[in-house]
Amino acid sequence: MKSFLITVFLFAFQLFSAQEEIYANGVFNFEENKTQKIFTDFTRVRQQPTVNSKILDSLPSNQQVLIIKKEESLLQLGERAAHWYKISYQKNNQTVEGYIWGANLSVGYRNKNGYDFLFGLTKTLSKKNPDGDGSYQQNYASVKVLKGNQLVDEANFETGLGESLNFGTFTIESNHQLKNVDFTLKATVSGEACGIAGYDQYVLFTNKKLIALPQLMNVGDADIYHHSEEFIFPNDKGGIPNAFILKTEEMEKDENEREKTKRSSKTYLWNGSSYKLK
User: Fold this and answer.
1) Which residues, in sequence order, are CB contacts of 143 under 8 Å at separation 6+?
2) Rounded to 5 degrees, what angle do the CA atoms 88, 93, 99 make?
3) CA separation for the pair 185, 173 (Å, rounded)
4) Which residues on adjacent β-strands are paired with residue 123?
5) Helix (H) or strand (E) holding 12
6) At residue 270, what are phi and psi to the nearest 5 degrees?
7) How far apart are CA 261 and CA 250, in angstroms?
8) Closest CA to 117 of 191, 201, 198
9) Residue span of the signal peptide, if any (predicted)?
10) Disulfide: which of 128, 129, 173, 266 matches 184 by Cβ 3.0-4.6 Å?
11) Sheet containing strand 35-37, strands side by side
């Protein structure tokens, strides 16, 4: 059923996109007079909010900038669409101003134990539809861990279509009692309407390495159907030592409004540095 739902969403999204004008993805909506972090490597700072404008500078990942103003101008590359932002930052003890594309900023960032963790979108690539008919534009994201401006490690993963990039969060959780895990990072993107999938990406931080777990997808339309996925960790009720459980539930109503629910689970064993399906 999961593959069927994805195919339906892809078709609906492609039809919808062909008829609508471009809007900025909500995950790239940043508040003025707030600090943000550069996500992509060597982000170009321009004199004006356009790709044809003169390049004034380039900034590395983890560079802190201040959002001065969101411009009306938009740029779309693949499925990533964002406004240009006027920013300022410190360089050689001076305040420098310029413009950057919003999709080059981190969706979220955190600091813990002397490390900086960034979550952001990296690119869009064309992929074949699950049913083999045509293709769609797949977004990719990553979580980075840095020490200053030095990249320590990076975990890459898919993160849904453009319609699923309306909201984004990035949090640090406990180690969930997994052996040798310092803590767990959780990157989430979701849409704003029924029938649009949301994605949870858990990433373990252990021995200065990032390990991405299988991605979770949740989607539903009122009480007509839903598909939900969640992890049960050792510290959760029902959890088991040195393992995590992926629980899936699918529900849909038939033509007589009767609910049909299917539940399943998978257990992944954790040895302190990697996991495998039991």
Assistant:
1) 117, 118, 119, 154, 155, 170, 185, 187, 201, 203, 210, 212
2) 20
3) 6
4) 140
5) helix 2-19
6) -120, 125
7) 6
8) 201
9) 1-17
10) 173
11) 35-37, 64-77, 80-91, 94-101, 43-46, 55-59
Q: What is the pLDDT of residues 186-198, one digit of tens each?
A: 999 999 888 899 9
- Judge residue 192's burial from the number of C-beta atoms within 10 Å of its C-beta, 0-12 exposed, 13-18 middle, 19 or more buried: exposed
**Rounded-to-integer distance, Cα 102 and Cα 110, Å:** 19
Return d(Cα 98, Cα 45) in angstroms, integer: 6
Q: Model-level pTM?
A: 0.88
Q: Give the start-to-end residue ranges of the domains of the chain.
A: 2-277
Instruction: Classify strands 55-59 and 43-46 as parallel, antiparallel or unpaired.
Output: antiparallel
pLDDT over threshold 90, residue 12: no
With CA atoms as reference, report the closest residue to 246 among 222, 220, 216, 225. 216
Counting beta carbons within 10 angstroms of the beta carbon of residue 25, is it exposed (0 to 12), middle (13 to 18) or buried (19 or more)? buried
Count of other CB atoms within 10 angstroms of residue 62: 21
CA triple 127-129-135, angle to 5 deg: 55
